[in-house]
Structure formats: structure tokens, C-alpha cells
Amino acid sequence: MANKLISEAGNGQLMMRYELNKYLAAKEQYPGGQFGDEYFERSNTLKLNKIRFIVSEQTASASELLINVLKPYYPDLKLIASGLRTYGKPVGFFEQRVENKLSLWVTSFKMYNKNGESDYWDGLPAQITGIQDYIFADFGDSNELMLQAALKDINPAALWATTTKVRKFKNAVNMGAINKLTKREMFKKNR
Questions:
Q1: Nearest Cα to 153, choosing from 83, 54, 7, 73?
Q2: Is residue 123 part of a domain?
Q3: Under a CB-based contact definition with an 8 Å cutoff, are residues 129 and 150 in contact?
Q4: Which residue, 6, 18, 45, 102, is most buried by CB atoms nearer than 10 A?
Q5: Radius of gyration of the chain (CA)
Q6: Tally of domains in the chain
Q7: Assigned domain for 16 exists
Q8: Closest listed residue to residue 91, CA positions, set 65, 128, 127, 52
Q9: What contacts 44, CB < 8 A, 6 or more positions away?
Q10: How far apart are CA 64 and CA 170, in angstroms?
């Protein structure tokens, strides 16, 4: 996805680099290994100068990585969020089995963008916040509030209307009927 969004100026430039834990680093001693630096290989003809990502508190891992690797190349990159930020997971894991009863997902590597940025443990902060997520709208429906906020931010001169259905839904979200946050479970027992 990053190669489909990167600008012409970013083609061939550093996308990301890894920092491995000591155990993995000892096994990764050859150049061009699985965890070598990644460079953009542009596969688009887009001429973007603004990018908007629609996120929530559950947006994590690969989605956050995509945002983070594009940030250095797009000064006008913004996040539109139902809350204040994304989840916060700048690392990758491999499963470690303990006595065939428990799975531990030990941090194996951390990922950095071109500018060396990676410490988003508390999530990537959104620039446009508190937009309710109307999950019943079809993809691309400009009446969906998060998409509408993104489109308004990209083109403020355009006229936008909010439907009654969306306004009613906002009340259900505000009352906690929809989009309840789930607990962040770090350990999972195999069944």
C-alpha cells in the first residue's frame, strides 16, 4: 500500500528500518536479510499533496506503520479519528509457545521511518478528533461523518450536508450504544 501512495520524490527513498531484539539480531547477520532496510518502489502515477487517514483507537500495527512511513514524505498528512489517537504498536512479534499451554508474543523488532520516528506507544495523535464513526454507511458514502470530515479538510470550499440518519446515529454513539472500547488483552491463553 505504501508504494501505491508514495510521491514521485519518495521513490527509491528509505521507507523503514528495523531494530531487532538481541536474539533475533544474532540470527540476522547477513546483508539483505529478512529485516534489511526497506525502500519505496513507487507503483502509482498519483500526484498527491494531501493524505487523510480515517482511524480509531483500534487502528494499530501495520496501519500505524503505513501512516508512520508516509509522514516524512507528506507534510500535509492528517489523521481523522473517532477518539484522539490510534492504538500504539510500533513493534512486531513472533509467537513463543510455553509448555504447549501458553503463547507469549515477545517483542521481536521495532520499526522506524526515514526520520527515525517510532515511539508511538500511546498511539499516533489525530489532527481532527471526536468524529463519530457511522459504521452503517456504505464505503464512499460522503454522508458518513469521518469520510465527510476528511473530504471537508481536503476541500473546505465544497458544500457538505449531514443526513438525519447520521445525526440520529451520533446520539446512539454518544450514549455508548456503539463503538465501546474493548480491553487491551496482552496475554492470550490457548484453548
A1: 54
A2: yes
A3: no
A4: 6
A5: 20
A6: 1
A7: no
A8: 65
A9: 3, 4, 5, 6
A10: 26
Comparing 62 with 187, the larger pLDDT belongs to 62
Q: How many CB atoms lie within 10 A of CB 6?
A: 24
Domain hosting 63: range is 50-189
What phi, psi does 109 have (nearest 5°)? -155, 155
Inside any domain, residue 10: no
- For the segment 72-97, what is each residue's pLDDT rounded down to a tens digit? 999 999 999 999 999 999 999 888 88
Chain centre to alpha carbon of residue 168: 28
The answer for residues whose C-beta is within 8 angstroms of residue 34's C-beta and 6 or more apart is 28
pTM: 0.79
**Cα–Cα dist 15/37, whole Å:** 8
Positive or negative CA dihedral for 50, 4, 160, 126? negative
Alpha-helix runs per DSSP H in the chain? 2-5, 22-27, 62-70, 145-154, 164-174
Q: What is the rounded CA–CA span in Å between residue 36 and residue 47?
A: 29
Query: Does residue 175 lie within any of the structural domains?
Result: yes
Contact 189, 101 (CB under 8 A): yes
